[in-house]
Amino acid sequence: MKKLISLAASFCAAGALFAHSDHDHESDRDGAATNGFPTVTIDVAEGQNPWTSLALNNDPANFQFAIITDNTTGGRPGVLEDAFKKLNWLQPEFVMSVGDLIQGYSEDRAQLKFEWDEFEGFVSKLEMPFFYVAGNHDYTNPVMAEVWKERFGASYYTFVYHDVLFVMLNSNDAKRPHAMTQPQVDWLAAELAKHPNPRWTLVFTHTPLWNFAEDRQSLWPQVDKLLEGRKHTVFAGHHHRYVKDVRNGRANYYTLATTGGSSQLRGPRFGEFDHVMWATMTDDGPILTNLVLEGILPEDIRTEKSEAMQQALINDDSLVVQPIIFDEDQFPGGRTELRFTNDTDLPVTLELEVVQTANVRFEGERHQTLLVPPNEVAISSYRFDAADLSFDSGQIAELRWKLSFDHAGETYDFASHEPINAIRTEPIPAATIAIDGDLTDWAALPYRYDADAWVYARNRVWHGRDDGDFRFGVTADDDYLYVGVEVTDNGRFADAHARNWAQDSVTIALDSRPANIRNITGRPDLNYTLVPGDEPNAARLLGENRLPEGSQWKVRTTATGYTAEIAVPVAYLSQQAGELWRDVRVNVMIADRDPGEDGRIGLRWQPEWGSVRAIPGSGTFRR
Predict the structure, then answer these.
(1) Does the keyword Signal apply (predicted)?
(2) Helix/strand/coil percent split, the chain, to 5
């Protein structure tokens, strides 16, 4: 009780901020004050004026507050702190919670002290009051209950603000999780009796016990009964998935998502996102919206200075992680490195963390902090070995990085992540191919479009392999590298005036430059884009003047689509490699547009180089 009295006193100290007053929106045309509302000083012309009204939306009886939700089950570091920082930007009048504030579930007082001290350290940075609600991670055994009482006093309580009754319940004070005691329900009945007719009642609890109302031992039906007949809204958490329910015929019950708690983060339609709920209290009830944390940004998120530094430190391939390229059937292990080039006149701090994503063994330091002097290069090397034979080819780890620097009294930081890939190369068989569009001289076309790789669709839906598909092969002799493609297309479309992606076409991308260039750059060295045509001489090679002298190509239509063949001079591949070429990177894409349709699709063997889904080193072939 002492804590509640002290809390009420702190409210009164804020003076008019917490005072209830009439809220009549009358206002004179010239903005004169009525009923004590602030005035608007503005010149009003006769006739029309460039505003809709001078009755400003500034009812002093209305107010705004925020609600945070779960931070548990392996809470993700930094999310809760980020939420509190952004709440200070938003400046609500106070912040509510729905519990599960610490990892908890412990009888170790030292551990509980550590976790509560950490959480209260976060809370101390808030510039407005914070109201605690107990969750099952915070309050499920006698030791946790004692610690709660020592730190916070009551585990269920109420307060009134602007004639709105706030009720904080403990959904875990019984001897079993997710259950209330009868004394708490009796207390609630008494509290509601003290406040029979507030303009609204807001209830905050952790577990949405209405989901378990069919449990014969559940006391939540009593809570529902007590709330009947009054305007009310209920907020909970626990499930880490957002959902809105309507109960008692008209009351909204909300289960919130997460503010750092475990989640697959598949997005709003799954109810999985990090957020704070923003509430504006009105006479008609709370107006609620979800503020996704990633969408709350400071006004100076990007400046001319930071743009220039980003260009110098990141965009110009200054920060590069090379893939591990191997030739064996199974990953034998290998070493990769991050190379960071600081081409500025400022020292840069680079923080690195390696997170494994496959069953491999990692050697080295998982966490590193490097101070990179101006105009210097930092290299960090990482060794991975196969843990078993289950890993084939792909991403083995993620390198998370953060770089920061001080400039003109301001601190700038950038954070992102780079995949660490182990890519198995594909062998190039030796053979000589006649470039005639007839694929019968190909021993095999073993590489086929992977439906999981990359689909681009614009105003069209890909209906499967009968709608558009391809397979291809790669071979070489002493003079040429050959690529042959067989395309399946149930409706061909060609337009002499359209770009390659707006008509049926196949693009073969190649790059034989050194690995440290071709594995990172977003643009291939060569693009052979071939367009089929049913009429004689209608087939075309786009951009032929940009291709190596001596290139050969042929496109031929078939009953099921079309074929394409190219021959690339080996001399050019060696010239680009800077030595006798050994390997080359290859990607194949088809664009498909059907007659009578404006939309189109694009299918790639590997994700587009340079795209957000790009796999560095993917599609590497070896001699």
Answers:
(1) yes
(2) 20, 35, 45
Q: Which of 96, 66, 68, 67 is nearest to 259 (CA)?
A: 68
Q: Residue 418 in contact with residue 399, Cβ under 8 Å?
A: yes
Token pair recorded at residue 49: 């004026």
Phi/psi of residue 462, nearest 5 degrees = -75, 125
CA dist 458 and 262 (Å) reads 35
Amino acid at 581: W
State how far Cα 39 lies from the chain centre: 44
Question: Long-range pairs for 214-220 at CB < 8 Å and ≥24 separation?
Answer: 217/179, 218/179, 219/179, 219/180, 219/181, 219/182, 219/185, 220/180
CB 397 within 8 A of CB 352: no
- DSSP secondary structure code for residue 322 in this structure: P
Measure the CA–CA gap between 463 and 482, rounded to whole angstroms. Answer: 30
For 484-494, write each residue's pLDDT tens digit.
999 998 877 77
Using CA atoms, how far apart are residues 306 and 311, in angstroms rounded to an integer? 8
CA distances from 489 to 535, 536, 557 (A): 17, 19, 10
- Over the stretch 565-582, which tens digit does the pLDDT of each residue have? 999 999 999 999 999 999
Structural domains in the chain, CATH included, are: 65-295 (3.60.21.10), 304-424 (2.60.40.10), 426-622 (2.60.40.1190)
CB 548 within 8 A of CB 568: yes
pLDDT in tens, 215-249: 667 899 999 999 999 999 999 999 999 999 888 77
Any residues with CB less than 8 A from the CB of 597 and at least 6 apart, and which?
459, 460
The whole-angstrom separation of Cα 356 and Cα 382 is 12
Cα(476)–Cα(173) distance, integer angstroms: 74
**Tokens 């089950």 belong to which residue?**
73
Looking at the chain, the whole-number percentage of residues with pLDDT higher than 90 is 53
pLDDT at 479: 97
Instruction: Write the Ramachandran bin of 74: left for phi over 0, alpha for psi from -120 to 50, otherwise beta.
Output: left
Compute and round to an integer the Cα radius of gyration of the chain: 33
Residues 6+ apart with CB under 8 A from 239: 208, 211, 255
